[in-house]
Amino acid sequence: MTDQRQALQAALDGEHAAVYSYGVIAAYANSDRARLVAEFSAAHRARRDATIELLEADGTAPEAPEAAYNPPFPVDNPIPAANLAVAVESDCAAAWLAAVEQATEPAVRTTATEALTEAAVRRARWQAILGADPVTVSFPGKA
Predict the structure, then answer these.
(1) Residue 138 burial class via C-beta count within 10 angstroms: exposed 0-12, middle 13-18, buried 19 and up
(2) How far apart, in whole angstroms, are the C-alpha atoms of residue 6 and residue 13?
(3) For residue 63, which phi and psi values (nearest 5 degrees)?
(4) How many whole angstroms separate alpha carbon 125 and alpha carbon 42?
(5) Do residues 140 and 125 touch, judged by C-beta distance below 8 A?
(6) Residues of the chain with pLDDT > 70: what percent?
(7) Among 72, 90, 94, 107, whose CB has the most other CB atoms within 10 angstroms?
(8) Digit-coded pLDDT (tens) for 44-100
(9) Other C-beta atoms within 10 Å of 14: how many?
């Protein structure tokens, strides 16, 4: 397996986790955030599906998703739900940054850069909701 393919598989794993996690986020998020949660969940589903197609384009099937994903902390009200969203978007940004770094094909690099940017913007939106200052970091996806 090439480094590019491994990075894309890791990004796909992150997207699977994000789709699952947004189900948890939706269950506990403030009702005022329902539209935002639905929008971000749909974005992750679309990115997941596009990544599957990208991986399948070279003739091999991507690995299957996990049956379930455990949040890194208990989620039982709107604040932990928003914090989970920040964690999810941070994880996705890190995975897509790795895909940018490992990309050998221009189309893959473009796709990974777009996905990294989208995750960084979603993370910043959640950070703003939580009242963080600053809402973003200089290099999204870096620890």
Answers:
(1) exposed
(2) 10
(3) -70, 150
(4) 16
(5) no
(6) 100
(7) 90
(8) 999 999 999 999 998 889 999 999 999 999 999 999 999 999 999 999 999 999 999
(9) 27
Cβ atoms of residues 99 and 10 within 8 Å? yes
> Taking a C-beta distance cutoff of 8 angstroms, is the pair 29, 81 a contact?
yes
Average pLDDT of the segment spanning 29-48: 97
pLDDT at 112: 98
3-state secondary structure the chain: CCHHHHHHHHHHHHHHHHHHHHHHHHHHCCHHHHHHHHHHHHHHHHHHHHHHHHHHCCCCCCCCCCCCCCCCCCCCCHHHHHHHHHHHHHHHHHHHHHHHHHCCCHHHHHHHHHHHHHHHHHHHHHHHHHCCCCCCCCCCCCC
* 117 confidence band (pLDDT: 50, 70, 90): very high
Choose among 100, 98, 70, 86: nearest CA to 137. Answer: 86
What is the sign, positive or negative, of the torsion defined by CA atoms of 111, 18, 13, 75? positive
What does the block give as tokens for 75? Answer: 């989620």
Q: Largest alpha-carbon pair distance within the chain?
A: 45
